[in-house]
Amino acid sequence: MVDIDVESSGKQADQTEPAVQADILVGDLARFLVGLAKVQQDDRLGNRAVSDGLRLLAACLRPHKARPISDLADLRMTEKGESRHRSGTRKSTFELPSDLESVTLETVTGILRNGDVQKKQLIELAGCRFGIPGSRLSRVNREEAVAAIEAAVEHELSIMAIERGAQLAGQRRVA
């Protein structure tokens, strides 16, 4: 409940915030969207692209017309436009090592090859092990995040090769 101060009369009026009604069905929402699409169809005042989009959205919702709209959060559209029920966020079955700063490059490579590792975990690994900013990787898809970490691994391997070469060259000079 929200108290609103009405300045003109000096009295307070009680108003309740509009809440999503549990009895509103997806079919009701689809019909509402079709009505909005009709309004947007007007050549002078409407927008045809918006109208078409609203109709398409209503068509996608129709197979779920008997469900309450509160269930919409559990629906996800596939690439083909079919909807399927989502049971929730996928939990990772993979657990990162606790000492990310000191994991070996072989361990990192194994983590990258594991399909169960989530992007969030890759971002954590990249930040702790290689100092790659999380903001950089959060903007790319999982494959690009893997590629960025692979590039960091390759970079570190080349630095190690240069160090070994320098050590060998130094040993030859001394001998």
Global morphology? elongated
Q: Indicate the mean pLDDT.
A: 79
What is the number of helical segments per DSSP (H or I, 4+ residues)?
6
Distance, first to last CA: 86 Å
**Into how many domains do the coordinates divide?**
2
Strand and helix layout:
Elements: E1 2-5, E2 12-15, H1 26-40, H2 48-61, E3 75-77, E4 83-85, H3 105-113, H4 119-130, H5 134-138, H6 142-174
Structure report:
- The chain has helices at 26-40, 48-61, 105-113, 119-130, 134-138, 142-174, and strands spanning 2-5, 12-15, 75-77, 83-85.
- With 175 residues, it is mainly alpha-helical.
- The chain has 2 domains: 2-85, no CATH class; 100-174, no CATH class.
- The radius of gyration is 28 Å and the shape is elongated.
- The strands form 2 sheets. The chain has a two-stranded antiparallel ribbon.
- Helix content is 50%, strand content 8%.
